[in-house]
Amino acid sequence: MGLFDFLKPKFASVTPQVAQERIEAGAMLLDVRESVEYRSVHAPSAKLISLGVLPSRLKELPKEREILVICNSGGRSSQASAMLAKEGFNVTNVSGGMVAWQRAGLRTVKK
After folding, report:
1. Which of 74, 82, 84, 94 has its CA at a distance of 20 to 30 angstroms from the CA of residue 65?
2. pTM for this predicted structure
3. Does the active-site annotation cover 108?
4. What CATH number does the domain located at 9-103 have?
């Protein structure tokens, strides 16, 4: 164990393409952006719980399923992933967020 291991994230990160495969296999996609961002564009199956209210809404998340966390570019989803990992969730960060998701040509919806 290295001196700075405590600084390493306690969760993995995957590309949007891998995230899509895991969603199709039963993982949940959690979008932690603000509602205005979510309405402008989001992944089809994403559940919106903004980062700011996430701590008070943990009961809405499944402990038995993998949770993939996405935001716009990866910053907020990393924060949310760290928080969820600390709470015992099986969590994975989606690298690059919705920017990378759209760049990968994956399906999006607007609401």
Report:
1. 74
2. 0.91
3. no
4. 3.40.250.10
